[in-house]
Structures are given as structure tokens and as C-alpha cells.
Amino acid sequence: MFDKLKKSFGSSFDMMIVGLGNPGIEYDGTRHNVGFAAMDALCQKFECECKKMKFNAYVGDTVIGKKRVLLLKPLTYMNLSGKAVGAAANFYKISPENILVMYDDISLNPGTVRIRRKGSAGGHNGIKDIIEVLGSDNFPRIKIGVGAKPHPDYDLKDWVLSKFKEEERQAVEKSLETTVKAVNELLSRGIDSAMNKYSK
């Protein structure tokens, strides 16, 4: 099965881009699925698809900034995101520093984007699992703000699985546009340039 995939995609990629989320229509539009939404926006911009099922994920490929890119949306549910990321990384021999992960961040307001070269999980279970599977936190990431809990006693799971209010949704849509621009900048001119332009 994987040999056929390698034949169709080729044997090497310069970069892997991962969008985190939960599979299933009931999770569409939730805060935790903004990484999936970012991948969809990226595919729309670069006229590609991320729909083949391999590595417990939807996968696709494209070229951004003259770099051949593997696209990946894990279907393992958020807390086991590393299973899909690790399988694809091992198969194509992609090192952690060449894996860009896009995901939600409750510490940032909707509409805000942060780019980081590496770092801890910061309480995000999807990132935590990726770090554990890869054995490294040395991978770039784009954090997309989804807003903090309305009050400390609000259940975190309920919050990240809630949907955006209209004004929040509009802000997030703008941040997805920024994310796509940041990805293009990062692959074209490097992470420092992307951070200077889009990590505000």
C-alpha cells in the first residue's frame, strides 16, 4: 500500500505541513478544528487537495516556494495526532525541523497568528503527542488564536469543541488568510521572514 503511495507522490519531500483537528462533521467549525480549516484554506490557495487516506490521515502534495510539500490532516483525533505525523515522517524520512504544524491556541485572541520555530506543547494535547512520537519539540508551528475560556470554571474540552460566534468567525477567517500567507513566506524566504511579517 505504501509503495503505491510513494510511487504516486515520489520518494522525497522538502517539507510536511500538518493541520490539526478532529475528524467528523460534528467538529466542523469548532475552535479545535482551526488547523483543519487552515489546511483547507491552503489547499484552496494552491489549488491542491488533501483527500487521500494514508497514515491514518488525509494526505496530499503540492509545491510552495519551489519546495515539494506533503500535506497531512490526521484522522486519529487530536490527542493521538502524533501517530499520523510520525508514520508519515518515518516513511518519507522528514526530520522534525521540516514539519510545520498549524493548530489552535486558546491563549491568543481570534484573528491572531503566532509563528514559532520550536517549543513546548503549552497544554495542547495534539502538540504534546507529536512531541512524544517525534522525540523532539524542534519543529516549527503556526498557532491560530481561538480565544480564551469565558471564565476559569468553564470546561476546557467544552470550550475547544464549541463553535465560534459570528464576530469571532470573521476574525478567524482573516487569520486563516494570514496563515496561508505566512506558510508561503516561510517556505519561500524562511521562518525568520515569516515571523517578522506575520507573527504579531
The separation of the N and C termini measures: 43 Å
Please state the CA-atom Rg, rounded to the nearest Å: 16 Å
**Helical stretch count?**
7
Q: What is the overall pLDDT average? A: 94
Q: What percentage of amino acids are in beta strands?
A: 15-25%
Q: Structurally, how many domains make up the residues? A: 1
Main β-sheet description? 7 strands, mixed
Q: Care to give the gist of this entry?
A:
With 200 residues, the protein is α/β, with parallel strands linked by helices. The chain contains seven helices and seven strands; from the N terminus they run αβαβββαββαβααα. Strands 2-3-4-1-5-7-6 form a seven-stranded mixed sheet, with helices on both faces.
Kindly describe this structure.
This protein is α/β, with parallel strands linked by helices. It has a single domain (2-198), classed as Rossmann fold (3-Layer(aba) Sandwich). It has helices at residues 2-9, 34-46, 81-92, 125-134, 156-160, 166-189, 191-198, and strands at residues 15-19, 52-54, 57-64, 67-74, 99-105, 113-116, 141-145. The chain has a 7-stranded mixed sheet with strand order 2-3-4-1-5-7-6, with helices on both faces. Strand 3 and strand 4 form a beta hairpin. Helix 2 (34-46) packs across helix 6, helix 3 (81-92) runs parallel beside helix 4 (125-134) and helix 6 runs antiparallel to helix 7. It is globular and about 50 Å long.
